[in-house]
Structures are given as C-alpha cells and as structure tokens.
C-alpha cells in the first residue's frame, strides 16, 4: 500500500488525512483514518507479506491554538508479522516536494525504482533493493539540490528479501553497474563489476570541467558529481577514481 499526503498525531494516535480530512485537533479523530487500523487491515488481508510506503511529513505541526507532535513517532508493529513499512522521512523531518518532479521527492524515487531503476541484474526488485535505491537517490538529491535533510526510515520485522516485482533485466552497461555499486555495495558488484564501475568514474572524471553542460549530461547525476569534484579540486592529478570510490 502507498499513501502520499498529510499525517497528524492526536492524543498519541496517528491519522492519515484524506482529501476531506482535517488537521484541526478537535475534529481530527473523527475526520481522518487511523494508521493502526490501516496496518491491522493489511495484516488481516490474507497476504503472507505486506508493505506500506508513507510519503508524509513527520515534524510537529501547529494549528494556532495548540501544537501536535509529529506523525508516527513510535509506530507499533507486531514482532512476528511479515510487514515492512517505509517512511519518507525520519521522525521530526519534513517530506520535501518538488514541482519539477511532479511528486514528493520520496514518491518520485519510489516510482522510478519500481519501474526498474532498483532492479538487480536479473530484473528482480526486492524490498531491500528498493530501500537501497531510494536511500541513495534521496541522499544524492539532497547534495545536488542543497535541500534540507530528509532520510527515509524503515520499520517492521519482514524480510528485506521480500520480492515486490520483476521487470525486464536492465542493460548492464558501465553507468548502471557504477550506480549499483554505489547503492548496493554487495559482493556481486564489488568482486565482478568493480572494474566497470571504475571505468564509469574515469568517464566522469575525464569530462572537461569548463563544459558544464556536458558534465551534467552524463548518464547519472552521481557521475556528474564526480566530474564536479574534479573541477573543484583544481587539478586532475589530485583527484582520481580511487579517491572518488574511497569517498563513497
């Protein structure tokens, strides 16, 4: 299940705020949907494994008459349940929106990951794959756009190996492999694909820093970042692929 919108906490109970809901303290309980009820319905659905993605702010809000603590500060989940919940931000943080992306930033990378960007070499997308992809892209977005920090967090005892979907296996070119090494860091990519990842770094580092358009038209913003680091270093002799990989 996926939800994008407002969330409030009233008297210790978390509520999702639908389009006709309200953050008004006196009416919130009767006008909104309790998160605990949503989780209970998911667990009673009959599916062996369930996932919930929430793109909502978790910072305290002020209604003018009183303040309310941030949404879902302490979500309680059954220890034995096969459920995973991913929040778009950790407790106290705002969930950022970007008009150019047409979504909240978390929602945008969630959708991109499900479309195939988070797939492994066999085209499989597990919860863990998606989680790593979103974390990496959100961190990258924060650095490139200089926004306030927003760090997705996960709760629940379900396995990160839960299979979400399968897509057409991606083309394992150098840019893809470098990105996967950046986000996954697992043995398969480190042992077998390390040389290709270094080659992708070298491609970024060879970009002429004076040609900003070319640098930022590389295959991924991550590779563009490597090129800008070379530019800021002032000397290619002091910035190479080994240093770039060591930093990441």
Percentage of residues in strands: 15-25%
Reported for the largest beta sheet, the result is:
4 strands, mixed
Residue-averaged pLDDT = 76
Judging from the principal axes of the Cα atoms, what is the shape?
Answer: globular
Biggest sheet strand line-up:
1-5-8-12
Count of individual beta strands: 13
Number of DSSP helical runs: 10
- Helical fraction equals 25-40%
- SSE order in H/E notation? EEEHEHEEEEEEHEHEEHHHHHH
Class computed from helices, strands and strand pairing: alpha+beta
* Gyration radius, rounded: 21 Å
Distance between the termini: 32 Å
Low-confidence stretches: 234-248
Please provide a written account of the structure.
With 248 residues, the chain is an alpha+beta fold. It has a domain at 172-248. The chain is built from ten helices and 13 strands. The protein has helices spanning 28-31, 35-43, 105-117, 127-145, 174-183, 187-192, 194-205, 212-215, 221-233, 241-247; strands at 2-4, 6-10, 13-17, 33-34, 50-55, 61-62, 67-68, 83-87, 97-98, 103-104, 124-126, 153-155, 163-166. It has a four-stranded mixed sheet, covered by helices on one side. Strand 9 (97-98) and strand 10 (103-104) form a beta hairpin. Helix 7 (194-205) packs across helix 10.
């Amino acid at each position: 299940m996926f939800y994008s919108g407002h969330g409030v906490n009233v008297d210790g109970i978390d509520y999702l705020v639908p389009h006709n809901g309200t953050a008004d303290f006196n009416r919130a309980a009767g006008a909104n949907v309790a998160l605990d009820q949503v989780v209970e319905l998911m667990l009673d659905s009959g599916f062996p494994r369930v996932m919930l993605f929430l793109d909502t702010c978790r910072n305290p809000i002020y209604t003018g008459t009183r303040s309310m603590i941030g949404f879902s500060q302490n979500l309680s989940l059954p220890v034995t349940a096969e459920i995973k919940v991913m929040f778009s931000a950790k407790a106290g943080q705002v969930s950022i929106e970007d008009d150019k992306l047409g979504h909240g930033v978390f929602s945008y990378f969630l959708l991109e990951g499900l479309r195939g960007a988070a797939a492994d070499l066999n085209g499989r997308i597990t919860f863990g794959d998606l989680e790593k992809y979103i974390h990496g892209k959100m961190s990258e977005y924060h650095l490139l756009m200089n926004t306030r920090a927003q760090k997705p967090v996960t709760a629940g005892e379900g396995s990160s190996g839960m299979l979400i979907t399968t897509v057409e296996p991606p083309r394992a070119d150098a840019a893809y492999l470098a990105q996967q090494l950046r986000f996954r860091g697992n043995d398969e990519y480190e042992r077998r694909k390390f040389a290709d990842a270094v080659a992708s770094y070298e491609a970024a580092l060879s970009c002429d820093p004076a040609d900003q358009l070319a640098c930022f038209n590389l295959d991924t913003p991550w590779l563009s970042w490597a090129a800008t680091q070379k530019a800021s270093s002032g000397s290619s002799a002091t910035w190479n692929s080994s240093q770039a990989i060591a930093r990441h």
